[in-house]
Automatic annotation (TrEMBL):
Gene Ontology terms for molecular function: ATP binding; metal ion binding; protein folding chaperone; protein-folding chaperone binding; unfolded protein binding
Subunit structure: Homoheptamer arranged in a ring structure. 2 heptameric Hsp10 rings interact with a Hsp60 tetradecamer in the structure of a back-to-back double heptameric ring to form the symmetrical football complex.
Family: Belongs to the GroES chaperonin family.
Name this polypeptide is given: 10 kDa heat shock protein, mitochondrial
Keywords for this protein: Chaperone
SMART domains: Cpn10
Record's GO cellular component terms: mitochondrial matrix
Source organism of this protein record: Gopherus agassizii
Length: 102
């Protein structure tokens, strides 16, 4: 999943680059949803991670997620980044609410 664009962009410290999942456009009953009623997608896939942040004693604390994991994001926040005409978002490791496990 990490293509040429991500070799040129590496998040620093405890930052995580994510790609939001596509919004549901059809209900289970087959009804098409207009864009205004779709809501914000809170699920995303991790694309790149930074090296981690420094602790109080100077040691590096690694980021809690890995590339390829599905995570839950807050409704607001993050920095929008456009790479190769695709939208990605940059979040701090502490802003991530949780991760999905299989």
């Amino acid at each position: 999943m990490a293509g040429k664009a991500f070799r040129k962009f590496l998040p620093l410290f405890d930052r995580v680059l994510v790609e939001r999942c596509a919004a549901e456009t059809v209900t289970k009953g087959g009804i098409m949803l207009p864009e205004k009623s779709q809501g914000k997608v809170l699920q995303a896939t991790v694309v790149a991670v930074g090296s981690g942040s420094k602790g109080k004693s100077g040691e590096i604390q690694p980021v809690s997620v890995k590339v390829g994991e599905k995570i839950l994001l807050p409704e607001y926040g993050g920095t929008k980044v456009v790479l190769e005409e695709k939208e990605y978002y940059l979040f701090r490791d502490g802003d991530i609410l949780g991760k999905y496990v299989d």
